[in-house]
Write a structure and sequence with these properties.
Blueprint (H helix, E strand, L loop, with lengths): L4 E6 L2 H9 L8 E6 L2 E7 L1 H4 L9 H7 L4 E4 L2 H15 L6 E5 L2 E5 L10 H17 L5 E6 L2 H10 L5 E3 L5 H4 L13 H9 L5 H4 L7 H7 L18 E12 L2 H21 L2 E10 L2 E11 L2 H14 L5 E9 L2 E2 L7 H17 L35
Parallel strand pairs: 2-4, 7-8
Antiparallel strand pairs: 1-6, 1-7, 2-3, 5-6, 9-12, 10-11, 10-12, 10-13
Helix pairs in contact: 4-5, 11-12
Bound molecules: magnesium ion.
Magnesium ion (MG) binds next to strand 1.
Family: Belongs to the DNA polymerase type-Y family.
GO cellular component, one term: cytosol
GO molecular function, one term: damaged DNA binding
């Protein structure tokens, strides 16, 4: 019996994740870079790809192709947290699941597809909807369905973004005639060059070449007898940190504490997203440094802020330009009994922020005078806050 394999691939994953987190980035060309200020684009948004920006473009090339591109430093914690939520959803559809990379997975639904209304199509549509509901309205994925992993992966690549493609025994040869040979998983740089040198750029052309070497023959006819295997889950985070450098130094204690609270809020959102809580909290402000550890882990920014505020109060430095918050000694799935109502509140706020963008809801302490509302430009892409009059 033929297998039914589903391949799900998140579209422009890192860039879309940043657009999900920050509505100001949506619809704009976004390039994800490793760190502030330099290097290569490691992911481009759908909008940036239209300008020709792609993974591996240097920042200089990307700006040449698309001067208005917004460059955002990568935030791997955020992407891993989203991936673990994606994994949880996909696991509802079959026990045979292979997380192939941070943004794609194979699922063998041979045994489970008939349990779903509408069969494998109904299943795939439901999966796509749930991803959007749970990871966020801006998050999109392409799904490919076929009878081997190779074909399922190719199918998901044939329509982006937001595609759903079915390659069957009957249609797959014809449906893939115009696919570029380099698109096939297994046809790398050398084999692509070998085929191109013989005038073959598409699979249709490659199939015309007489007496192909057997391993290339199998690839261009998309034959494979690949087995599904499961792999281990992603490694959990060891710590979560947020840092920020201001344009002008902060000279009031109130403004410093607000920035600290801001960073704690964001770090805690990340923690909750990963279903983790921490016991050790560090605060750094230019040359000031403090650390404190508590007995039972928490993900509540109010508690962490209370402790770091007390540390800060021991020697309240001012004229600060750099602030950092670290949370470590992390634990999974911490029981919450005493502050259940507060935990519910935080989770309700998280759901709103996941759906409508980070800091749609935030504590009132961040409302008043010195903090401006979220704003994004260029290299400071993932820093959602600026100080009024700082420039
Ligand atoms: Mg992808």
């Amino acid at each position: 019996m033929l297998k039914t394999i589903l391949h799900l691939d998140m579209n422009s994953y890192f860039a879309t994740a940043e657009q999900q987190a920050n509505p100001y980035l949506r619809g704009k060309p976004v390039g994800i870079i490793k760190a502030e200020g330099r290097g290569c684009v490691i992911a481009a948004s759908v909008e940036a790809k239209k300008f020709g920006v792609k993974t591996g473009s240097t920042v200089w090339e990307a700006k040449g192709l698309c001067p208005q591109i917004v460059l955002v430093p990568s935030d791997m914690d955020k992407y891993f947290a989203l991936t673990s939520r994606m994994t949880k959803i996909l696991a509802d559809y079959s026990p045979t699941l292979e997380i192939f990379s941070i943004d794609e997975a194979f699922i063998d639904v041979t045994q489970t597809q008939n349990l779903f209304c509408g069969g494998v199509f109904g299943m795939a549509l439901e999966m796509k909807n749930r991803i959007r509901e749970d990871l966020g309205e801006w998050m999109k994925c392409s799904v490919g369905i076929s009878f081997t992993k190779l074909l399922a992966k190719l199918a998901s690549e044939m329509k982006k973004p937001d595609g759903l493609t079915f390659l069957t025994m009957e249609n797959y040869v014809e449906a893939t005639e115009s696919v570029a040979v380099s698109e096939v998983c297994g046809i790398g740089y050398a084999r692509t060059a070998w085929l191109n040198a013989r005038g073959a750029y598409t699979l249709g052309q490659a199939r015309q070449i007489p007496s192909l070497p057997v391993e290339i023959f199998d690839l261009v006819w998309l034959r494979s007898d690949d087995e599904l295997s499961t792999i281990d889950d992603l490694e959990p985070a060891k710590s979560v940190s947020r840092t920020f450098t201001t344009f002008a130094s902060l000279d009031s204690q109130a403004s410093i504490l607000k920035l600290v609270r801001n960073l704690i809020e964001e770090a805690c959102m990340k923690l909750r997203e990963m279903n983790m809580a921490g016991r050790t909290f560090c605060l750094s402000l230019d040359n000031f440094w403090a650390r404190t550890t508590i007995r039972s882990p928490t993900d509540d920014p109010l508690i962490i802020f209370g402790m770091l505020n007390r540390e800060y109060g021991r020697s309240p430095v001012t004229n600060v330009r750099q602030a950092g918050v670290w949370i470590s000694n992390l634990a999974f799935n911490v029981q919450r009994s005493v502050f259940e109502r507060r935990a519910d509140l935080l989770r309700a706020a998280d759901r709103v922020n996941e759906k409508y963008g980070l800091f749609t809801l935030y504590p009132a302490i961040l409302l008043s005078s010195e903090l401006v509302r979220l704003e994004v430009t260029g290299y400071l892409g993932d820093k959602y806050y600026r100080f009024r009059g700082a420039r």
